[in-house]
Specification:
The structure is a homodimer. By secondary structure, chain A is of the alpha/beta class. Chain A has helices at about 20-30, 60-70, 75-85, 90-100, 130-160, 175-190, 195-205, 215, 240-255, 265-275, 290-310, 325-340, 360-370, 405-410, 420-435; strands at about 40-45, 55, 105-110, 115, 120-125, 165, 195, 230, 240, 285, 315-320, 350-355, 380-385, 395-400. In chain A, α11 links the parallel β10 and β11 (about 315-320). The radius of gyration of chain A is 28 Å and the shape is elongated. Chain A starts with 19 loop residues before the first helix and ends in a 12-residue tail after the last helix. Mean pLDDT of chain A is about 80; it is low at about 1-10, about 385-395 and about 400-445. The interface between A and B is large, with 122 and 124 residues.
Chain lengths: ~450, ~450
C-alpha cells in the first residue's frame, strides 16, 4: 500500500468499496431473475445528529461522481470470484463485468440543503441489483460529509456571523481522506478556513496558520535571532528589532507590574524571529510558558516594536487552559497597552482560541466574553476546531422503496413517491435555518 | 474532485497534507538560518486511549512510505507561493522545491507493538525544517491507525480468543480512506475479518457478509422464488426447496408453539431464495419482522430443509433490540430444534450480533451468555463492530527534542536519547499483553 491519496484514478475501483453482503444479495437477486426489476431507494436519517433538529445534506456531488464511474474492473471481478462461495455461477461474474450505473437516475436536494429526520433527501432509481450494490458506497460518501457540514453549521449558528471559525482537525482525522472531507464540508457548513494545505489547494478553501509551541521552544535567547534587522514599513534605515523589542518589554512589564525576569527569553526570541520573517502577519501564541507572566508581555513588546516600524500584529492565540478566562485577561491587557501607549487598534487585536472547542465550551466562551465586553460582537475572536467526530454519528439509512411500498410501510419507512412533495415542504422550512447560516453555504461547494 | 482513492499516485502531493503553520514556521527557521540544524522529534501520547493503560502502535509502515515519497511538486510550490505572505522570499520557495526526506532517519517500535503513555514510540531525526514539516502528516497517519488497532485489541481482550470479531464500519467512516484504515488496523489489532470488499482486495483481509433486511423485505411470497429447485449435496434428483421448507415450517411452529399465520411469508421466501443461491453459506438475519414469531421459525425451517438435502446453515444474525436476551432465546430454540429433530449440530449454529456493539455491551453480552451456558466458551458468537471512533481520540504528540533538551524538559517531555532504553523496557512489558491478543497481531501487517 502506497501513501494514500484523495483522488481515485479514472475508472477506478470504487465499486468494490462496499460491504460483501451487497454482492451476495446481488447474486441472490440475479439467481431469482429479479436483478433488473425497477427499484428505488432513498437516503434519510432517523434522528438529527448532535441531538439536533436538522442536518445539512452534503457529499451529494461526490455520490454522483461515484455513480458515473461505477463499474467493476477485470481485476475486481477476479477478486470477487475468489471470495464469493465457489457455487456462485460463472455467468454472474460475466454479468458483473458488464454493469454500470447508466440506467440509474438520482434526485436529491441541492448540496448544503437543510434536511430533517425521516425525510428522504436523495433518491436512487434503477435496476434492483445496481441500486442494491450502491447502498454502502453512497452512505459512506454522504454520511460523514453531512455530519461534518451539520456540525459546522451548528457551530456557525452558535458563534454568530462575526466570529471566524477555522477547521484544524488534520492530525486527529481518520487519515488523509477523512481530513480532507472534514476541511471541505466544514467550509460548506459555514466555517471560514482550514489549516489543511492540501484541502486549500484541492478545494480552494482559504488556509490559515502561523506558529506552534515547537517553534517557540526551539529558541532560548535573542542571540539566536538572525537576521536581526527589519525595514520600517514606510522605508528608511533598517532597525535592530531585538533591541527595540527588549526596550518595549521593559515598558510593558512596568505597566503590567510583572517581573522582567519571569519573561521567557526564548519565547521573546521566537516572537522577534517570526516578526522579522512575517512583519505583516505576526501572531503570538501565548501559552508556551505562562500567558500572564511571559506570553502576553512578550507579545505586546514585539507587537509594539512592530507598530513603531509601521506594522500591525494580526492577533494572538490561546491553546490551553481556561480559554474564556484567559481571553478576558488578554483583552484587558491589550486594551491597557493600547490606552497607555496610545495605540488605539491594540485593544481590538483578534484573539484566537483553540484546543478541544465543543459546542458547550463555545457557548460558555461567548457568554463569558459578552459579560466582559457588553454590547460588543465577538468579531475579534477566532475559534479553531478539531473535528474528530464519532458516536454522535447519525445512522443514515438507505431503504429500498417503491416496488415494496407495502412491506416497507410495515417498518414505518417511506415509499418513494411521497418524496417530491416532502422536498418542497422541507425546502421552505429550510430557508429559515439557512438564513441564519452566514455566509451562504449554498455557494460553497467549490470542490463540486 | 473525483471519487476518492486509497492510493496516492507515485511521487504525489502528500507533502502538502500538513497544517499551514508548519510552512510558516519552516520559513521562520529558514529565515534565521536554522533550517539545517540537526533535530529530533518523537511521537508519544499523553494518556492511553479509551481510558486504558496501553495502545498499539500502528500506521508506522505508511509513515515510512510517506517519508520516502516526501517532496513538493512544482504545482505545490506554486500553490504555497499563492498562500504564504507576499513578503516571503523567493529563495525559500526555490529551497522547498529541492527538499526531500533523504537526510531523515526514523527509529520506531515494530508495527503492532504495545506502547504506553508518555513513552516515545517513533523518533524522527534530520534537518530541523524537514522534521518540523513532517509533524502533522505523521500524526495524521499514525493517530487514527493506532487508535483503531488499540480499540480492536481491547475488543479482542474482552472477547477472548474464540469469539470472531468483524469490522463493518464502512458506512459510518470518514469516507473511503477512513473506512479502509479502520478495516486494516482492526485486523492488525486482532479482528478476524471485515465487510469492506475493497479492504479485502487491497490488504488480503478475509471478507464476510451474507444478507441484509432490504433483501428480505424485497420478497412477499414463496411464489417469487425462482428457480425453486436445489440438488442434494450428495447428488440425485433436484428437490423443490420452497415445498420442503414449508413442510418444515409447520413442524417447527408446532414444536415452538407459535402460530403459523404470524410467520412472515416474504421472509421465508427470502431465506429460501438465498439458500438456493448459496446452499453451503446460508445465514438467517432474524430481526426484519419478529425474531421469535417469524425470523427464528423461518430460519429453522429453511436450515432443516437444507439439512435434509445434506447442507449445513452457517449461522444466524441479530441486528437490533436486546442482543443478549435474543441470543439466549435463539440458542434455546436452536437447541430445542436440534434435540427434537435429531440434528445435533443445530444447537451449536453460530449466532452473530451486530448494531452498536461497545466494550460495555460486549462485556454484558458475554456475561449474560455465560450465565445461560455455563462452562461454554462463546465460540459460536460473532460480533460485528462499527468503528466510528471519536472523542476518546488520544491526542498524540510530536515533540522536537535533542537540540532543545533543556527547554523541552521545562514542559515535562522527553529528550531524544532516553528512548532506546525505554523501548527495551516497553517491549518487555508489552509481551504480557501481546500474549493475550490472539492471533498474534505482529504478523498482521499484510498491507505493510
Amino acid at each position: 500500500m502506497a501513501c494514500r491519496a484523495p483522488r481515485l484514478p479514472r475508472g477506478g475501483a470504487m465499486a468494490l468499496l462496499t460491504d460483501l453482503y451487497q454482492l451476495t444479495m446481488a447474486y441472490g437477486h440475479w439467481r431469482t431473475g429479479r436483478h433488473r426489476l425497477p427499484a428505488a431507494a432513498e437516503l434519510f436519517f432517523r434522528c438529527g445528529p448532535f441531538r439536533g433538529t436538522f442536518a445539512l445534506a452534503a457529499g451529494l456531488a461526490e455520490a454522483l461522481r461515484c455513480l458515473r464511474a461505477f463499474r467493476f474492473s477485470a481485476a475486481d471481478v477476479a477478486y470477487l470470484r475468489s471470495v464469493l462461495p465457489s457455487t456462485t455461477e460463472d455467468a454472474f461474474f460475466d454479468y458483473l463485468a458488464t454493469l454500470d450505473a447508466s440506467e440509474v437516475t438520482v434526485s436529491a436536494v441541492p448540496e448544503g440543503s437543510v434536511i430533517f429526520a425521516r425525510v428522504p433527501f436523495l433518491q436512487v432509481k434503477g435496476p434492483l441489483l445496481v441500486v442494491q450494490l450502491l447502498e454502502t458506497t453512497l452512505l459512506c460518501l454522504v454520511n460523514y460529509a453531512s455530519l461534518v457540514a451539520t456540525n459546522a453549521a451548528r457551530f456557525r449558528l452558535l458563534a454568530g456571523p462575526d466570529m471566524k471559525l477555522m477547521e484544524i482537525g488534520l492530525r486527529r482525522a481518520q487519515g488523509p481522506d477523512g481530513a480532507l472531507s472534514a476541511s471541505k464540508y466544514s467550509y460548506i457548513g459555514g466555517f471560514d478556513c482550514t489549516s489543511n494545505v492540501l484541502a486549500g489547494k484541492l478545494y480552494g478553501i482559504p488556509v490559515r496558520g502561523t506558529i506552534a509551541h515547537s517553534f517557540i521552544m526551539s529558541f532560548t535567547s535573542l542571540e539566536e535571532v538572525q537576521p536581526r534587522e527589519l525595514l520600517p514599513q514606510a522605508g528608511g534605515e533598517p532597525v535592530d528589532l531585538p533591541s527595540v523589542a527588549e526596550s518595549w518589554l521593559r515598558r510593558v512589564c512596568e505597566l503590567l507590574q510583572t517581573p522582567l525576569e519571569n519573561v521567557n527569553r526564548g519565547e521573546l526570541a521566537a516572537f522577534v524571529a517570526y516578526a522579522i520573517a512575517f512583519p505583516h502577519d505576526f501572531q503570538g501564541l501565548l501559552d508556551t510558558y505562562c500567558v500572564r507572566r511571559s506570553g502576553l508581555p512578550n507579545f505586546c513588546a514585539v507587537a509594539l516594536a512592530l507598530h513603531q516600524l509601521g506594522y500591525r500584529a494580526i492577533g494572538v492565540r490561546l491553546d490551553s487552559g481556561d480559554l474564556a478566562r484567559q481571553s478576558k485577561e488578554t483583552r484587558q491587557v491589550l486594551q491597557a497597552c493600547g490606552a497607555h501607549f496610545q495605540v488605539p487598534w491594540f485593544g481590538t487585536i483578534p484573539i484566537a482560541v483553540s484546543n478541544d472547542i465543543s459546542e458547550q465550551s463555545l457557548e460558555e466562551f461567548r457568554r463569558e466574553v459578552r459579560e466582559l465586553l457588553p454590547g460588543r460582537r465577538p468579531h475579534g475572536f477566532f475559534v479553531m476546531f478539531f473535528c474528530a467526530l464519532g458516536p454522535q454519528n447519525p445512522q443514515q439509512h438507505y431503504r429500498l422503496g417503491e416496488e415494496w411500498l407495502e412491506s416497507c410501510s410495515q417498518r414505518g419507512t417511506w415509499g418513494g413517491w411521497i418524496m417530491s412533495q416532502q422536498c418542497a415542504q422541507v425546502a421552505n422550512e429550510a430557508k429559515g435555518i439557512l438564513a441564519c447560516i452566514s455566509p451562504s453555504v449554498a455557494s460553497r461547494d467549490r470542490g463540486g
